[in-house]
């Protein structure tokens, strides 16, 4: 009896071991399928992609949303039933949590999972998704992975102007307004003079103000028809590029002829405000990376207030029978009117329309991009 019982016990253990081994092998086979896929001629890795590859979203309500798609790399067949994980791996919002759709983070019949998150910091994040086959919440080296970029910008409100295009920040903090503006190329000749101004400053959004600290440059095409040509630097006719500053709009521009600017240069301009003084600064960066001398002046003021901050392309003679320069497009980098957005402020994206009943678009302002720096462009329309 004892020997018979021992035999039965051993047979039972063997049977149990076989069942466990079969289950183990089946589990491994399932993992291998989820990680590597299957196909004739050997094991083929799966292919994971995130789309869109890049996108822009607004903080304070916008959502960064990526769609992960899992396929068999050999057959391109969609792979359902695989669990994915996601994370913001790098960027200003690293580590922030998000939500899967479906909530299980398991690929649906289309081999897809959506993942979205909201952010509070501007800048560009790198979102990573991976097949989390071992469930450890980490992208291991043998797990299919993919990345996508999400650039977060401040929310903007559209606005129109008869003479401006660019960005305006209302209720700004008491900080410097700064930008690096690329000098455009204007036509080599014109039958009538044309003017365009590019600048940073304060208080321009207010009408009839006597305190308008600004600094920037003009890109003009001069003919012999306007006496204004004699008041600025450069030739009397043809293309003219020159820096200027202004404090009081009723006294006009003050040219900075000591700094020369040419097409392709990048002009750094800065207005540093305070209640008792304002400091204006400019220098020029050449296309080869060299930097010219700095121009800077300090002006005393009394009880100064600053209600708006601007980075602007302007038709300085709008409303007069003087055409706006055909300049193509101009790039603004590092505009602090965008970077200094805060609670209680409004960031306006301004397009320029010809004054009057015609309402003809003259210049458009692009959305903000975050490729290395806060940037935007102003493009001339029907120039």
Please provide a written account of the structure.
This protein has 383 residues and is mainly beta. It has 2 domains: 46-153, Sandwich (Immunoglobulin-like), CATH 2.60.40.10; 157-380, Peptidase G1 (Jelly Rolls, Sandwich). 10% of the residues lie in helices and 41% in strands. It contains 2 helices and 23 strands. The protein has a 15-stranded mixed sheet that branches. The protein has a 4-stranded antiparallel sheet with strand order 1-3-6-5. Strands 2-8-7-4 form a 4-stranded mixed sheet, with no helix packed on it. The longest helix has 35 residues, at 2-36. The protein starts with a helix and ends with a strand. Residues 1-9 and 13-43 have low confidence and may be disordered.
Keywords:
single chain; disordered N terminus; Jelly Rolls; 41% strand; Immunoglobulin-like; 4-stranded antiparallel β-sheet; 2 domains; 15-stranded mixed β-sheet; mainly beta; 383 residues
């Amino acid at each position: 009896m004892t020997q018979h019982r021992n035999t039965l016990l051993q047979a039972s253990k063997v049977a149990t071991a076989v069942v466990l081994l079969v289950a183990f092998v089946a589990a491994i086979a399932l993992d291998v399928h989820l990680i590597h896929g299957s196909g004739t001629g050997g094991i083929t890795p799966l292919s994971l992609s995130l789309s869109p590859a890049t996108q822009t979203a607004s903080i304070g309500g916008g959502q960064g949303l990526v769609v992960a798609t899992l396929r068999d790399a050999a057959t391109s067949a969609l792979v359902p039933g695989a669990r994915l994980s996601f994370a913001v791996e790098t960027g200003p919002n690293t580590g922030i949590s998000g939500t899967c759709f479906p909530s299980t983070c398991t690929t649906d019949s289309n081999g897809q999972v959506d993942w979205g998150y909201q952010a509070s910091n501007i800048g560009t994040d790198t979102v990573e998704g991976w097949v989390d086959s071992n469930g450890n919440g980490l992208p291991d080296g043998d797990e299919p992975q993919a990345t996508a970029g999400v650039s977060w910008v401040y929310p903007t409100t559209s606005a129109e102007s008869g003479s401006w295009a660019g960005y305006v920040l209302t209720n700004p903090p008491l900080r410097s307004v700064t930008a690096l503006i690329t000098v455009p190329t204007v036509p080599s000749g014109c039958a009538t003079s044309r003017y365009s101004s590019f600048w940073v400053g304060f208080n321009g959004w207010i009408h009839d103000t006597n305190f308008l600290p600004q600094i920037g440059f003009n890109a003009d095409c001069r003919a012999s028809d306007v006496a204004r040509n004699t008041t600025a630097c450069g030739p009397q006719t043809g293309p003219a590029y020159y820096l200027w500053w202004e404090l009081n709009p009723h006294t006009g521009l003050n040219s900075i002829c000591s700094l020369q600017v040419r097409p392709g240069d990048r002009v750094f301009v800065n207005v540093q405000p305070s209640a008792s003084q304002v400091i204006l600064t400019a220098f020029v960066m050449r296309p080869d990376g060299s930097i010219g001398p700095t121009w800077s002046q300090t002006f005393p003021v009394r009880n100064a207030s600053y209600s708006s901050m601007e980075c602007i392309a302007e038709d300085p003679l709008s409303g007069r029978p003087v055409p706006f320069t055909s300049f193509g497009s101009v790039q603004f980098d590092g505009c602090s009117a965008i970077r200094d957005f805060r609670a209680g402020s409004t960031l306006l994206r301004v397009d320029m329309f010809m004054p009057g009943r015609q309402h003809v678009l003259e210049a458009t302002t692009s959305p903000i991009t975050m490729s290395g720096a806060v940037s935007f462009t102003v493009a001339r329309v029907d120039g």
